[in-house]
Amino acid sequence: MKKKSRRGKHSRSYLGSQYELGYKRVLERDGWHVSARQAGSKGAFDLVGWKYGCWHMQLKSGRASCRLAYARSAQLRTDTALPSTCGVLYVHRTKRKEYCEH
Hints:
Blueprint: H1 12-29, E1 33-37, E2 47-50, E3 54-63, H2 66-79, E4 86-93, E5 100-101
Parallel strand pairs: 3-4
Antiparallel strand pairs: 1-2, 2-3, 4-5
């Protein structure tokens, strides 16, 4: 069931989860194995998957500049104690791309 606010628009959490599920489908079509989805952003990352190594992904459905995305990606790398074999992706929406990866 779709969550709607009183004004008839979808809630931010619903839009964010739809963005995550859409990106997960794109990855799976591309041959990725996506193993975990952290609902409600309870963890540092929204998706964890692997294709050629392990990747932890943070997704933001709102528009963000690539400069901000690079900064947040670097901050995630330093804040989390991931092994050096794991990568970090920060995925956001821009005017030109639905899924812009950093």
